[in-house]
Amino acid sequence: MRHIISILMENESGALSRVAGLFSARGYNIESLTVAPTEDPSLSRMTLVTRGSEEIIEQITKQLNKLVEIVKLLDLSEGLHIEREMMLVKIKAERANREEVKRLVEIFRGSIIDVTDTSYIVEMTGDGDKLDAFIRAVHEDLVVEVVRTGPSGIARGAKGLSL
Amino acid sequence: MELSGSEIVVQCLKDEGVEYVFGYPGGAVLHIYDAIFKQDDVKHILVRHEQGATHAADGYARATGRPGVALVTSGPGATNAVTGIATAYMDSIPMVVLTGQVPSPFIGSDAFQEVDTVGITRPCVKHNFLVKDVRDLAATFKKAFYIATSGRPGPVVIDIPKDITDPGVKIPYDYPEKISMRSYNPVTRGHTGQIKKAVDLIMAAKCPVVYSGGGVVLGNASESLIEIIRQLKLPITSTLMGLGAYPSSDKQFLGMLGMHGTYEANMAMHGTDVLIAIGARFDDRITGHVERFCPDAKIIHIDIDPSSISKNVRVDVPIVGAVDQVLQNMLKLLKDSKVEQDQDAIQQWWSQINKWREKQCLSYDKSGDTIKPQYALEVLHKVTNGDAYVCSDVGQHQMFTAQFYGFDKPRRWINSGGLGTMGFGLPSAMGVKMAHPDADVVVVTSEASIQMCIQELATCKQHSLPLKILMLNNGYMGMVRQWQEFFYESRYSHSTVESTPDFVKLAESYGHVGMRIERKEDLEQAMQKAFAMKDQLVFMDVVIDPEENVYPMIEAGKGHNEMYLSPESELV
Ligand SMILES: Cc1cc2nc3c(=O)[nH]c(=O)nc-3n(C[C@H](O)[C@H](O)[C@H](O)COP(=O)(O)OP(=O)(O)OC[C@H]3O[C@@H](n4cnc5c(N)ncnc54)[C@H](O)[C@@H]3O)c2cc1C
Ligand SMILES: Cc1ncc(C[n+]2csc(CCOP(=O)(O)OP(=O)(O)O)c2C)c(N)n1
Ligand SMILES: [Mg+2]
User: Residues with Cβ within 6 A of ligand 2?
Assistant: First the structure.
């Protein structure tokens, strides 16, 4: 099963490598990982997507909690939550297909943020499925480059993950 | 008080109550060594290899429960220390290792004797620090000692760049009284509801077994354990790491369990309806095939580390907490409880266990003239009144010691279980002897293991550490040879130690006493003589039966009811 785990940790240089090292040392897989400082600069927030049986996910959360720099952790998959990922796509846009691509971007509620005679850069946010669907919708010969952030997640409702 | 970084390092050790530092100097720690030179409170023990420093600090910690401290230089000093750090990590031993690092501005430039110590040690420490500012030093030490000794203990590395210890830069020093870390709050108190559930389950059990482990030793919970076992007449078995927490000589003790555990212990595991695991981590040497592990049991597991629980085997009643606290709570609940145990069932269970005991699975052939390793350990027990600190290396001799020495007290059995580090015995014994100068401290080893850290014989001379070394010389890497005999049709590929030194001369050349013992009838007297030399390290080279095997044995991945008991026996 796919799990999305949200982590609050000390914003210290070694912390990220401890998390990454834990996953490689114990043979867990990381599908994606995003991290950035929070409004409190002493803390970072990480969103990590992984897959495994219930037993493995239980070990993963326990092992993560054991890392001294991890302050708090929540398996978002256990409740209602929102996931968003951001994508930048460079697309060939020549005379014949400029309009077509533009229409697709509108349908998917993306925006074109860079234009040349022969290309667009499209910015798009959504859950992973939506971004996949967009890529499929654009003819594969036209896609020059795709950059995705991996999902960030937050639990629904009034309660926050904080100290 | 204004101190330099190097003075702060030493002062922090003093303020932590550290008596001994086991170390080896080098460029990156020279400022610290200079500060050590100028005081007498913290005593430095100069080893001959950094692996020895870490094992010695580890031995000190195992024997006392207080954190051991080692000090090594950057680069090769740090890499040499890694084996000792990993050894302590696997057995959850509290230790603080100070490593020198190249000066901060040089970090990352492939400077002379630079390695990424924090990176290299990350997977085998409980935590590590790179000190970036001299003003952080004191707080880092406080955190390191706190982390190493609290919760599930473990080694902590503090990597200190040379400029941080610059004697020319003085800053105000104040050692923090207390430290609190928002990201580190180990649990101690077990959940009352869970403890109550466990008590109910134990009281209702017809065939209960306690499986106790190193956590009972680490958590100083021996007394509580004994109390509860006696009160409820529970059969108890122990892992290799838990030996001594419950007296081996007591009739409720079934012996060690697992791969080389006793028949009765393993059969009881197989037949139990309620397994009570206390401070043990369901290691694969214990569980064998996990699907065939305790097939009929409800399992209670007390452990301070949530990640030990349901890691290898799913348990029914997890209790996260310090074992002593949890057992005390259980005893309190038992006092108020009106439920009675099913005495008939327990009685029957004991008679079943006693039938298993009749197999006498640890019996060995006493007829010949050769010295059997089992016999040598029985003699050792006799000569030391079973009261020595026994430090072991890794191999058959380690298993024989576990089976035959009969530990009656915790912290007397010092060995590397999790990592199985050959070379651990001698240096760890140095740490034990520093901690208990008046006690008998014995190294049980064999001719392969002893050569991995033999250079520490010089340390023993320099620091007057009169250890007794009992080397069971079988001329083989016995444990390897045994596996090759069983599983590779006796093709003894590179497990023969074909060239060994003359150990008597070797001991003598280091300034110690050497003895070679070849005849069974000489053994006891020789050992008496050796132990009577209170001020001398005596190296006993005891020639034993070269092809003796350790029994019982469960093949890796088999069930507890599938044991080999002797060379002749079929699987029982
Ligand atoms: C050649 C060889 C053969 C071996 N054969 C065997 C064998 O036949 N049988 C055997 O038993 N072992 C054997 N071992 C050892 C084995 O590899 C493991 O080291 C050992 O079984 C682990 O012991 P343990 O479960 O007690 O765990 P330990 O490693 O001692 O772990 C202690 C556990 O207690 C917990 N703990 C720590 N402090 C506390 C506290 N205060 N409160 C509560 N919990 C706490 C920890 O979180 C951990 O889970 C062998 C080793 C070697 C080298
Ligand atoms: C550092 C290290 N290398 C290799 C091993 C693998 N190993 C386990 S037991 C053993 C043989 C030990 O031989 P010896 O010290 O003579 O003990 P014996 O089994 O003969 O009692 C070896 C090589 C190990 N445990 N540690
Ligand atoms: Mg040998």
Answer: B 393-397, 420-423, 446-449, 472, 474, 476-480
Best of B283, B305, B400 to mutate for ligand 1, by most ligand atoms within 8 A of CB?
B283
Q: Read off the tokens for A30.
A: 């990381």
Encoding tokens for residue B529? 């003589």
Alpha carbons A51 and A46: distance in angstroms, whole number = 16
What pLDDT, in 10s, does the model give residues A108-159?
Answer: 999 999 999 999 999 999 999 999 999 999 988 999 999 999 999 999 999 8
| Per-residue DSSP letter, B190 | P
What number of other Cβ atoms are within 10 A of residue B496's Cβ?
14
Prior bond of B552 cis (ω within 30°): yes
Inter-chain residue contact A68 with B181, CB threshold 8 Å: yes
Specify the long-range contacts of residues B228-231, CB closer than 8 Å, at least 24 apart.
Answer: B228/B327, B228/B330, B228/B331, B228/B334, B231/B331, B231/B334
CB-CB contact of B335 with B313 (8 Å): no
Residue B222: name the closest of B246, B253, B255, B240 by CA: B246
Confidence band, pLDDT 50/70/90 cuts, at residue B571: low
Burial of B211 (0-12, 13-18, 19+ CB in 10 A): buried
With beta carbons under 8 A apart, name residues in chain A contacting B310.
55, 58
Residue B255: exposure state from Cβ atoms within 10 A (0-12, 13-18, ≥19):
buried
Work out the minimum CA distance from B103 to partner chain A, whole angstroms: 18
- B369-409 per-position pLDDT tens digit: 999 999 999 999 999 999 999 999 999 999 999 999 999 99
Whether ipTM > 0.90 holds is yes
3-state class of B101 per DSSP? strand
Rg, chain A, Cα only: 19
Residue B572: predicted pLDDT: 61
Please give the Cα distance from B446 to B514 (Å, whole number): 15
- Name A109's bridge partners: none
Distance B448 CA to ligand 2 centre (A): 7
Q: What gap in Å lies between CA B153 and CA B139, rounded to an integer?
A: 19
User: How many other C-beta atoms lie within 10 A of the C-beta of residue B14?
Assistant: 13
Q: Give the length of chain B.
A: 572
CA distance A35 to A55: 25
b/e for B427-458, b at 16 or more Cβ within 10 A? bbbbbbbbbbeeebbbbbbbbbbbbbbbbbbb
Average pLDDT, rounded, for chain A: 95
Q: What secondary structure does DSSP assign to B330-370, as a single string?
A: HHHHHHH------HHHHHHHHHHHHHHHTT-TT-----SSS
Q: How confident is the model at residue B562 (pLDDT cuts 50, 70, 90)?
A: confident
